[in-house]
Design goal:
homodimer; 197 residues; alpha/beta; globular
Chain lengths: 197, 197
């Protein structure tokens, strides 16, 4: 239907998550209409992303160097590790400014149905960091889903025998939320995890 | 918050229509995780789009050559021209297989509030095609919006004195739709345009 270069870009865009055929068409025609320099900027940004970044050799965060800016920061406490599923989760936690330790990116969560077992995650890499960085606490900040909870349980069983305190961020009511809109499971966990004021 | 190459791509993606900060982040991290060849393919497709396409010198459709595949097709009737706002509208009309003439892309619709007057659209280019292609009918398939309707009225006033029949696709109930869901203006036009069966 479209000229070949247009159709090829539409096909490539459709492979992106959350981009359907209609949005891909709209994006392709948008890129036909903008300044050529702007279209080239976008293409170059994609190439640069892959050429100028790598994964941190210690925690597997995204980095422009060998180790990421958090791992090389001497002000960060190496004894406390926050374990996350994906590199983008680090930005979410950093934004809270509540955490001063280092991170470890697992690369996903345990999900037997998708063929993700412990060997598919970076658990051995985490294991080897325990003695070298004298880790005393691990905060398992995987998603509050079945897969994330299962992963947290697995890591607790794995690392408690090594003398590491394993914790999990509290589940409960979102701040500014409305009791009416809380689901039963979240409200149940909020009650179980109640704190004296 | 993110490494520079990641942040730069997020910024570029946010400039696309319908892509917010959150989607841009998701897309950027997706492009970090896919095969490097796939990311490069997308970047190359964007570059090729601009290098290998141009606008048809006759109708301003997208083309890989000088004139588009519709303009050079000898089976298309040159006497009937369908006038559209944007190149992507041509694909929508072609899909109906109801139209056998040629096209003309205006490049938008009249909208004084956005600074789009007749001089900003390709109306003079359309004017010069009337004698050279012996145009007898113009179907004004601009969007059924205020801007599209205004543009259609303007073109009718402009081209009727030249002996061209100017028509507009019917407005009315969508096929397979439900009367309950029709808005008053659409239903009003459907009644005005009623046809004997």
């Amino acid at each position: 239907m479209f000229e070949r270069p247009v159709q090829r870009l539409i096909d490539e865009l459709t492979r992106l998550p959350g981009v359907g055929r209609k949005s891909a068409q709209r994006l392709a025609f948008h890129l036909l209409n903008v300044d050529e320099a702007d279209a080239r900027c976008l293409a170059q940004a994609i190439v640069d992303l892959r050429e100028q970044t790598a994964f941190c050799s210690r925690c597997y965060n995204v980095t422009s160097g060998v180790e990421c800016s958090i791992c090389v920061d001497p002000r960060r406490d190496p004894a406390v590790i926050c374990v996350v599923e994906r590199p983008q989760d680090i930005a979410v936690i950093e934004r809270t400014r509540e955490f001063k330790g280092r991170y470890h990116v697992l690369g996903g969560a345990l999900s037997p149905i998708d063929g993700v077992g412990p060997a598919q995650l970076r658990i051995e890499e985490l294991r080897s960091r325990v003695p070298t960085e004298s880790i005393t606490e691990m905060i398992i900040a995987t998603n509050p889903t079945i897969e994330g909870d299962t992963t947290a349980m697995y890591l607790a069983r794995r690392f408690k025998p090594l003398g590491v305190t394993v914790t999990r961020p509290a589940s409960g009511l979102p701040v500014g939320g409305d009791m009416d809109y809380a689901d039963e499971i979240t409200l149940g966990r909020a009650l179980t995890g109640r704190r004296e004021i």
